[in-house]
């Protein structure tokens, strides 16, 4: 009798086990579907964010990419080994058309240096390209020299770069592609931020935020001209239209010409810059940013320029351009 009851119970137990297994499987599938849907929503939001750019105000005509390549404008100061290394590297970038070296030293470049640079340009150029090299010699030693108007500049796109930072050509070419989608905007590799200083009273004051501020908040409002694309027209605006008091401040304090350019472009476009993700190789060990009190001086610049413009033109954003062809997750 007991054996008969046990045999009847076995099919029922099996049915319950199968039912529990089926429910568990359905729950797992639902969870996977929810995860996939969430990922698709995030990706769609990211793509739509990357594709939206602010319209320009009527006062500044929209620029159009010329279809040509780009020119490098490189700032240097008595670091000849770094200059040689940088020129030799960037000369092989596919769409580079010309290199302009901003020379502000009291003595002109030596014949040996010129010979090396011209040889590097010729030997590193690929696919029959002819990259032009020009040394723009300035009589005055001023950081404003890096933004002087260049009369014979043949490309609309300018890649402003310091002599002590190197990016792979693939990263530079991708940043150029991004710039072509928004040629009135600054597109660069080194983001910085600003925010309202709540500790100050008696008027609105701002603070300058370095890389760690960008990393912590996920937002930025500037890309530094030590590695950034912008339109060549901004050279003329910087030299001839930007308030002279800003250029005088930069010359006197030997700092903040990059912040001045960020203010200029933001004031003209009412739009944020675009940060491009890229691997940076810093081949130099010294510079203005390594000096004590650097952040304090940069904060002073932000507030001084805000006062000159009569408003805060910088626009914060969290958009980052990423070349997804080279990474699994982005």
From TrEMBL:
- One MF term in GO for this entry? lactose synthase activity
Domain called Glycosyl transferase: residue spans: 70-323
Q: InterPro entries this protein is in?
A: GT64, GT64_dom, Nucleotide-diphossugar_trans
**EC number(s) recorded for this UniProt protein:** 2.4.1.22
The record's annotation in SUPFAM superfamilies points to: Nucleotide-diphospho-sugar transferases
Keyword list (alphabetical) reads:
Disulfide bond, Glycosyltransferase, Transferase
Q: Which family does it belong to?
A: Belongs to the glycosyltransferase 64 family.
Q: What is this protein called?
A: GDP-mannose transporter
The primary gene name is GMT1_2
């Amino acid at each position: 009798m007991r054996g008969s009851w046990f045999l009847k119970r076995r099919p029922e137990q099996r049915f319950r086990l199968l039912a529990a297994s089926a429910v568990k499987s359905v729950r797992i599938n639902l969870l996977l579907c929810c995860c996939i849907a969430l990922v698709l929503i995030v990706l769609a939001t990211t793509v739509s964010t990357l594709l939206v750019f602010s319209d320009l105000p009527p006062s500044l005509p929209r620029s159009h990419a010329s279809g040509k390549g780009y020119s490098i404008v490189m700032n240097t100061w008595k670091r000849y080994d770094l200059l040689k290394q940088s020129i030799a590297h960037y000369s092989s970038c596919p769409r580079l058309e010309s290199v302009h070296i901003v020379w502000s030293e009291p003595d002109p470049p030596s014949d040996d240096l010129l010979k090396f640079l011209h040889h590097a340009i010729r030997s590193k150029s690929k696919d029959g390209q002819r990259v032009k090299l020009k040394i723009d010699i300035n009589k005055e030693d001023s950081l404003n020299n890096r933004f002087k108007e260049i009369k014979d500049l043949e490309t609309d796109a300018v890649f402003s770069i310091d002599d002590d930072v190197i990016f792979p050509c693939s990263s530079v070419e991708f940043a150029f592609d991004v710039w072509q989608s928004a040629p009135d905007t600054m597109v660069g590799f080194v983001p910085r931020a600003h925010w309202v200083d709540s500790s100050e009273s008696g008027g609105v004051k701002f603070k300058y935020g370095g890389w760690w501020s960008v990393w912590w908040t996920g937002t930025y409002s500037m890309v530094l001209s030590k590695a950034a694309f912008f339109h060549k027209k901004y050279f003329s605006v910087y030299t001839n239209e930007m308030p002279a008091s800003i250029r005088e401040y930069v010359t006197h304090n030997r700092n903040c010409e990059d912040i001045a350019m960020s203010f200029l472009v933001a004031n003209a476009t009412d739009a944020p810059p675009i940060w491009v993700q890229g691997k940076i190789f810093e081949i130099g060990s010294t510079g203005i940013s390594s000096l004590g009190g650097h952040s304090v001086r940069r904060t002073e610049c932000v507030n001084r320029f805000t006062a000159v413009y009569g408003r805060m033109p910088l626009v914060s954003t969290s958009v980052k351009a990423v070349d997804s062809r080279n990474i699994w997750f982005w």
